[in-house]
Design goal:
The complex is a heterotrimer. Chain A is mostly helical. Chain A contains 15 helices and no strands. Chain A has helices at residues 12-40, 50-53, 61-66, 78-110, 113-128, 131-141, 148-155, 163-166, 168-193, 197-205, 210-221, 223-239, 243-247, 258-268, 272-305. The longest helix of chain A is centred in the last third of the chain and has 34 residues, at 272-305. The radius of gyration of chain A is 24 Å and the shape is globular. Chain B is 25% helix and 34% strand. By secondary structure, chain B is an alpha+beta fold. The longest helix of chain B has 18 residues, at 166-183. Chain B folds into two domains: 4-232, 3-Layer(aba) Sandwich (Rossmann fold), CATH 3.40.50; 237-355, Beta Barrel (OB fold (Dihydrolipoamide Acetyltransferase, E2P)), CATH 2.40.50.140. Chain B has a six-stranded mixed beta sheet with strand order 6-7-8-3-9-10, with helices on both faces. A five-stranded antiparallel beta sheet of chain B has the order 13-12-11-14-20. Helices cover 70% and strands 0% of the residues of chain C. Chain C has helices at 5-34, 54-60, 63-96, 102-115, 122-131, 138-162, 167-174, 179-208, 211-216, 225-228, 241-266. The two termini of chain C are 42 Å apart. Classes of the chains: A mainly alpha, B alpha+beta, C mainly alpha. Chains A and C meet through helix 1, helix 4, helix 5, helix 6 and helix 7 of A and helix 1, helix 3, helix 4, helix 5 and helix 6 of C.
């Protein structure tokens, strides 16, 4: 008797074979690191020396160090980086990228196509060019003596400044807003494009202003996209390493985001155990955002089904 | 060519019974239509013949072979899909010849054969085009050509004409009918369009909620619908259904709608049995069997004029009876329909169908041959 | 359509605002149009005086920098091939097979791929690579990128494949094709536009990335451009502006070319999560 099996385009065996390469790669370089980093965070493993080969189990010691109340808020310590990163995410992602992206996407709906293409190209260029190139462009742009920014400021009769030294935090906030606004713009662009034009035409006929159309029709209809955008850019900004190329975390740790702090602990001070502990905390925070995002995505999928 | 047989086939998706225990046989050379509303199980049945779904229980035979668990590629069948499934990256020649390619035929041989079939279908000049560069009707013929290009035991059609506009659909329907006469192919054809089924099939299987309600030649389906469901589904406009109360007066059965006598006929054995299930019967009359009459005629229905539609060769006159039910008559005369409020129509008793309380047709004694 | 006066005014206002934002975005980049062709080192925007191609010649003469471009190419192409091949197969299986638990697999993948960022996992990735003895090799960089980019690539492709009617493969199988034939003859060519998107996305990501090769590589002759670019700093740590600008321009060209290709071919409609 033939074995009873339901027909499908790809048999279970073939399906498993198709999944195998991806499963192996994701398993080794995504799943394994997740568990390994937890394990390492409970040891005093270092890059060099005796504890590189035979690390000791130290329990929660790395975590106690990170959360030591005596130094928690000191520059160059974990707490300082955590708070700095939170401010960085709030200002450059939630306020900067999202609002600027939304404004750009809305403007794109009404401006002439030629202008739209030029503006879009500039915004997207900031987003897709390699990070070291971007970092160097900004380094030149902000140079005190000859940089373009100070050239313009002097030309306008305004005081020039050495912003990388004086306002490093605001520099990386503006830098990250500039670098990442393209994603929000494109997401909102496609969201607006998915609204039937007749909705806006009906509002035109009723005599609505541009602002009223945005507030009463555009914004409510892309609410779902706004939430998606906010969560995604929050996660990415929280993990971003690019400001390192511009500021190296300095001056004197004033732009040392968690990612950069993690790098310094692990690869400059060679303390893998403590670096791993930082990694675990970053992942925990990522996990919270991911769960919010996924539960939201599921709700949306359910709503579509119903 | 070969026969196709379903033996107690059931298909469930989770808890949903798509097909419930159906059995039927398609003889070699027959053109069968599976007809029914969406969700009735007709497409699932077709896909089980193709091997694209596996029955949950039961057996499917093609010719002498049990194919229930055979892979589609090993069934020697052809299928035309509703969306045509033309490969967008291949030109028409390669699309049509694809079945020959997987059979290992040489390039020249398969292009020669593709050209032959394409010529028959009048797309021979388009063989270098891509599917996106031809019209919907041409796409439909291409998908047909791909099904005809290789020898096949059974031809399966999944609503192949539903994406065409009305005029092209008639043309393609005529061509399929011609092809069937020419080739004598065994075909199973799924459609929800009763006119298509009537035009093409040697027999129609009317399906409802996973079961076959009636399996018979088109003329029998039309004239003697087995149930009120079939009567409603076949014919356009559908059969008029008039709820009536049946009472026995001596040797005769009298049918009254809202107290008004509409029909009086001799009692048959079938009627006696049917009345045991309840006195609430349904009288079915096709629109073309109604003609204008006067209030005092027998076999009469009347009411207030509701709509009067001119269709060219005929008129469709709809009126509303006392109980609010509507009746449509198809009138073939050029006579002007009375514009007065009240109209009366008589119907031919021999063509009226009576259904029992459960909706099953009551056979008359000594029914005339179809 | 005729516009009323206030509408016209609003439209001009919007255009002006968009133009200003566009200029602000372009400002830090305009420098790249001039500086590489300038014989003199200028950090600000300045018309080259005199115009020269000498900077490019010098860069082409720098073996380490040229080697960097080649290394970038090796790592990007290697990673892209691996990501595209593995993601296509896996996405096809997730879309077309009825393997039990595939929706759970998808959910777990989505969760982990967003939780395990390069930033959080740099320590264990370093340890895994060094424990299998792949430290300081191209293959290490390629594998780590492939693993990291795969989940997103799989979602993009699964979405794409889910949108393709199954009747393509079904019709092929009814016509006599085996599942393997149906996949290569019919499914794969139809999926190709989706694969192109993934290829471009993965290439841009690996080509521009700095952290992973910076951590995993030690030898100068393996460094990709993102790291090799630092050879244009003087001993004292100050940049050699002219050469850096010229090299940056060369290094950016593939990304710009791909952007132009995608916007010509697809109208540049990258969707969610396209650049993590």
């Amino acid at each position: 008797m033939t074995k009873k099996r339901n027909f499908s385009l790809l048999s279970h065996r073939a399906g498993a074979a198709f999944l195998a390469p991806a499963a192996a790669l994701v398993g080794v370089f995504v799943l394994l690191p997740f568990f390994w980093v937890i394990f390492v965070s409970f040891t005093n493993r270092t890059l060099l020396g005796k504890t590189a080969l035979s690390p000791d189990f130290v329990g929660l010691q790395n975590y106690f160090q990170l959360f030591d109340p005596a130094t928690f808020f000191t520059r160059g310590q974990f707490g300082f980086s955590l708070i700095l990163t939170t401010q960085f995410v709030l200002l450059s992602a939630l306020v900067g990228q999202a609002l600027l992206g939304l404004l750009l996407a809305w403007l794109m709906q009404t401006i002439p196509p030629a202008l739209k293409r030029i503006v879009e190209t500039a915004v997207i260029a900031a987003w897709i060019l390699p990070e070291v190139v971007i970092g160097f462009a900004w380094f030149a742009f902000l140079d005190y003596d000859n940089g373009t920014l100070n050239m313009i400021l002097r030309g306008l009769g305004l005081p020039a400044g050495d912003f990388l030294l004086q306002q490093p935090f605001w520099v990386i906030v503006i830098f990250n807003t500039w670098r990442g606004a393209a994603f929000s713009m494109m997401l909102f662009n496609s969201a607006f494009a998915s609204i039937p034009p007749s909705y806006f035409q009906a509002a035109d006929v009723a005599g609505a202003s541009s602002w009223q159309k945005f507030r009463d029709i555009g914004l409510p209809l892309i609410r779902g996209h706004v939430v998606t955008d906010l969560i995604l850019i929050t996660m990415w900004t929280f993990n971003v390493f690019t400001p390192f190329i511009l500021t190296n975390g300095g001056p004197s740790y004033r732009t040392e985001l968690l990612s950069i702090y993690n790098y310094r602990i692990a690869f400059r001070e060679f303390d893998f155990g403590k670096g791993a502990a930082v990694g675990v905390i970053i992942m925990l925070i990522n996990l919270i955002f991911a769960l919010i995002y996924l539960s939201f995505g599921r709700k949306k999928a359910k709503a579509v089904e119903e | 060519m070969a026969s196709v047989e379903f033996q107690n086939v059931t298909k469930t998706f989770g808890t949903f019974n798509a097909v419930s225990d159906i059995s039927f046989k398609v003889a070699d050379g027959e053109f069968i239509c599976l007809l029914g509303p969406s969700g009735c199980g007709k497409t699932t049945s077709l896909r089980m013949i193709a091997g694209l779904e596996t029955p949950s229980s039961g057996k499917i035979m093609i010719g002498p072979d049990d194919v229930t668990h055979l892979h589609p590629k090993d069934r020697q069948i052809s299928m035309v899909f509703q969306d045509y499934a033309l490969y967008p990256h291949m030109n028409l020649a390669d699309n049509i010849a694809y079945p020959l390619k997987v059979r290992g035929e040489s390039v020249e041989k398969r292009h020669k054969r593709a050209k032959e079939v394409a010529d028959v279908l009048k797309i021979g000049d388009l063989l270098n085009r891509l599917p996106s560069q031809i019209s919907g009707g041409q796409q439909q013929r291409t998908s047909l050509a791909r099904a005809l290009v290789y020898p096949s035991r059974v031809y399966l059609f999944d609503e192949p004409l539903s994406n065409l506009d009305a005029k092209l659909r008639l043309e393609a329907r005529g061509f399929l009918n011609h092809l069937q006469r020419d080739m004598g192919m065994t075909a199973v054809y799924v459609t929800h369009d009763q006119a298509e089924a009537m035009a093409l099939a040697t027999r129609i299987a009317v399906m409802d909620r996973g079961r076959i309600v009636q399996f018979a030649p088109p003329i029998e389906i039309y004239r003697r619908p087995a149930t009120t469901f079939v009567a409603n589904f076949v014919g356009n406009p559908p059969m008029n259904m008039i709820p009536v109360e049946g009472t026995i007066e001596g040797e005769r059965l009298q049918l009254r709608a809202h107290g008004v006598l509409v029909r009086d006929l001799p009692i048959s054995s079938g009627i006696k049995a049917a009345l045991g299930k309840g006195a609430g019967l349904t009288l079915g009359v096709r629109p073309e069997h109604l003609s204008m009459g006067t209030i005092n005629d027998v076999n009469m229905v009347s009411g207030k004029l509701f709509a009067n539609e001119n269709m060219g060769p005929e008129k469709l006159v709809t009126f509303e009876r006392q109980d609010g039910g509507r009746v449509t008559a198809r009138i073939f005369t050029d006579d002007a329909v009375e514009t007065s409020e009240n109209v009366a129509f008589t119907f031919d008793g021999a063509h009226a169908t009576l259904f029992d309380a459960e909706g099953n047709r009551i056979p008359a004694d000594g029914e005339m041959p179809l | 359509m005729r516009l009323s006066f206030p509408q016209l005014l609003a439209r001009i206002g919007f255009s002006a605002l968009a133009a200003i934002i566009g200029i602000l975005f372009a400002l830090p980049l305009i420098w790249f149009i001039f500086a590489p062709f300038n014989a003199r080192a200028e950090l600000g925007i300045a018309i080259p005086d005199p115009w020269t191609l000498q900077n490019f010649l010098t860069v082409f003469g720098n073996g380490f920098a040229m080697r960097g471009l080649l290394n970038s190419l090796i790592q990007s192409v290697g990673g892209v091939i691996l990501v595209a091949a593995a993601a296509t197969l896996a996405a096809y299986a997730l879309s077309r097979s009825s393997i039990p638990g595939k929706s759970i697999v998808t959910y777990v993948l989505l969760l982990f791929s967003s939780v395990v960022s390069g930033t959080a996992a740099m320590v264990p990735i370093f340890l895994i690579v060094s424990s299998v003895g792949l430290m300081d090799t191209h293959i290490a960089v390629i594998l780590v990128f492939a693993g990291g980019l795969l989940p997103t690539a799989m979602f993009i492709l699964r979405d794409f494949i889910d949108g393709i009617p199954k009747t393509y493969e079904e019709s092929a199988m009814v016509a006599g094709a085996s599942p393997v034939q149906a996949f290569f003859d019919v499914a794969l060519p139809v999926i190709r536009p989706g694969i192109v998107v993934v290829v471009v996305w993965a290439f841009v990501n690996i080509w521009g990335s700095f952290l992973i090769p910076f951590i995993l590589l030690r030898s100068d002759d393996l460094m990709p451009s993102s790291v090799a670019i630092y050879s244009f700093y003087s001993e004292a740590g100050t940049p050699i502006v002219t050469l850096l600008a010229a090299y940056s321009l060369i290094y950016s060209l593939p990304v710009v070319a791909l952007y132009l290709f995608v916007s010509w071919k697809f109208g540049f409609r990258f969707f969610g999560g396209i650049k993590a």
